[in-house]
């Protein structure tokens, strides 16, 4: 059987390799992730919707697929690019290989690619539209298909990955949770919901288009704005909902796309990064304590620090490029971070932010009981 596969980029670059996932053809924005582990969490992170994910670490799949490590019900990424995919995982918890997992879910993937050369190209030129194909072998036609793909800018992908209807998260939840959090689902990771359960909160997950009135009817102690894919600016319904909730003084915690949406609701602007931040080893400085956190990140857009109103102070910055990694409002119980404090996968340096969110909600409960 011919297992040849091709990766073609919009700049005319073509890589030949071997098929290691489902047969077919797929396209999207090509990005690279610098994590050495956590590939299963990456595969099932809805924030990668519409993207071809390149892993910089040379061998992927060594410990297979573990049922409890999913971050969503199924993979959402457009395609997967690796140097070498392990066929014989070694882990007593593994239930299947990554290759079998990709085939089962219809994810087209390619191995045998010089991922170092590909990463250097993406760092130099920025994220590029690309096509992976096991069907088409003509480089010119593949490059033309890559150039015909839409840009990530302007795409509202949150509406693609959000839940269809509201539901309560029960995994790990306490019998009598002390707090109630409404989670706006723009592509929420299970790790975030697990952290909420671990801190004693009941999480009600609602679709991205849920109105402010509908959220207030649920009588939450706080609101979490989740991670998600694509450009934040077209997610206008959610931005309007956040604007309407700000005067209610409801504690709000934004993560990743949620951070960007909060920035837009406060009157700021966002912009597209050259090649984004994707990995579990990104250094972030907490400007209030001076401490450095090693963080897990996955985003291609960013809040413009200069565009924020004076009431929204910057709390965290990225030490690699100085971009926005966190903000807090000076008079409202509202804060957010660009990175992933739930750390699935990744370091646990930032989990204190969930404690901060819980403290804000308890303060609200105490004020209401007086």
Fill in the keyword field for this structure.
2 domains, alpha/beta, 10-stranded mixed β-sheet, Rossmann fold, 370 residues
Provide the fold topology.
Layout (H helix, E strand, L loop, with lengths): L3 E6 L4 E6 L5 E9 L5 H5 L7 E5 L3 E2 L18 E3 L2 E2 L12 H7 L3 E4 L3 H11 L2 E6 L5 H10 L9 H4 L5 E3 L9 E7 L4 H9 L2 E7 L4 H6 L4 E4 L10 H10 L6 E4 L1 H9 L4 E17 L5 E12 L8 E7 L5 E6 L4 E4 L14 H18 L1
Parallel strand pairs: 3-4, 4-6, 5-7, 6-8, 11-12, 11-13, 13-14, 14-19
Antiparallel strand pairs: 1-2, 1-9, 2-8, 3-9, 10-12, 15-16, 15-17, 17-18, 18-19
So, the CATH homologous superfamily of the largest domain?
Class I glutamine amidotransferase (GATase) domain
Question: Helix-strand pattern, N to C?
Answer: EEEHEEEEHEHEHHEEHEHEHEHEEEEEH
Count helical runs: 10
Say how many strands there are.
19
| Number of discrete domains | 2
Q: How much helical structure, as a percent, in the residues?
A: 10-25%
Give the N-to-C terminal Cα separation. Answer: 73 Å
User: Order of strands in the sheet with the most strands?
Assistant: 10-12-11-13-14-19-18-17-15-16
Q: What's the CATH topology name of the largest domain? A: Rossmann fold
CATH class of the largest domain: Alpha Beta
- Structural class category: alpha/beta
